[in-house]
Amino acid sequence: ETGVTQSPTHLIKTRGQQVTLRCSSQSGHNTVSWYQQALGQGPQFIFQYYREEENGRGNFPPRFSGLQFPNYSSELNVNALELDDSALYLCASSAGLSYNEQFFGPGTRLTVL
Amino acid sequence: GIQVEQSPPDLILQEGANSTLRCNFSDSVNNLQWFHQNPWGQLINLFYIPSGTKQNGRLSATTVATERYSLLYISSSQTTDSGVYFCALRYSGGGADGLTFGKGTHLIIQP
């Protein structure tokens, strides 16, 4: 059974650029959630995708957007990068919605200069 | 939204000691998970425990949903137990469908 994978592992961008992060869900899981973890903080929920539709969203602006594909993999897109977007971005998958156990990938560390 | 408070924020122990980490929350939940975050950032699942008691080796957890708290017990600590422990939960009343995390307990086990 393959776990949650994310790519790339590290990324450096400059302010104003756009970035796309990718996540493959664990085998058998149809729900993907994205989280942002700033240094020294707990992860914060960005949004969740279930059956290719956004199913819930945290307190993040519209320049954070996403997609889920028929194979349940997902992308997180961030436009107009700001310095404060520097963080570890974590993807989690679950079989169904968030009341089911979530399993996390290793994360993508984004640095915005 | 639901509030999550973890205590203590920092804990330094000698190898072999036992510890109890606490998670208090402000409302009813239908998902509560404990994670260990390693130095590379990976969140490792310890327990899925919206209610009841579970044990896995040297670790055990208890959630008393009616009193809105959960406890994580670590016995006979090893240096590899060092890291940040997070409690994360989901409010059962609906709304944004992700997990809400506490600020974590930073545990250091000294040899």
Task: Provide structural commentary.
The complex is a heterodimer of chains A (113) and B (111). Chain A contains no helices and 11 strands. Chain A is mostly beta strands and 113 residues long. In chain A, β4 (31-37) and β5 (44-50) form a beta hairpin. Chain B has 111 residues and is mainly β. In chain B, 0% of the residues lie in helices and 59% in strands. In chain B, strands 2, 4, 5, 9, 10 and 11 form a 6-stranded mixed sheet that branches. The chains are: A mainly beta (113), B mainly beta (111). At the A-B interface, β4, β5, β6, β9 and β10 of A face β4, β5, β9 and β10 of B.
E-strand count of chain B:
11
- Class by alpha and beta content of chain B: mainly beta
Q: What percentage of the residues of chain B does DSSP assign to strands (E)?
A: over 45%
**Termini of chain B, distance in Å?**
40 Å
Taking the sheet with the most strands of chain A, its summary is: 7 strands, mixed
Helical fraction of chain A: under 10%
Biggest sheet of chain B, in brief?
A: 6 strands, mixed
Q: What is the approximate shape of chain A?
A: globular
Structural class of chain A: mainly beta
Please state the CA-atom Rg of chain B, rounded to the nearest Å.
14 Å
Write the H/E string of chain B, N to C.
EEEEEEEEEEE
Number of DSSP-assigned strands of chain A: 11
* Gyration radius of chain A, in Å: 13 Å
- Helix count of chain A, per DSSP? 0
> Helicity level of chain B, as a percent range?
under 10%
- From the spread of the alpha carbons, the general shape of chain B counts as globular
Biggest interface pair, counts: A-B, 30 and 25 residues
The averaged pLDDT of chain A comes out at 95
Enumerate the spans of chain B where pLDDT stays under 50 for 5 or more consecutive residues.
Answer: none
Comma- or semicolon-separated keywords:
heterodimer, A: 113 residues, mainly beta, four-stranded antiparallel sheet, B: 111 residues, five-stranded antiparallel sheet, 11 strands
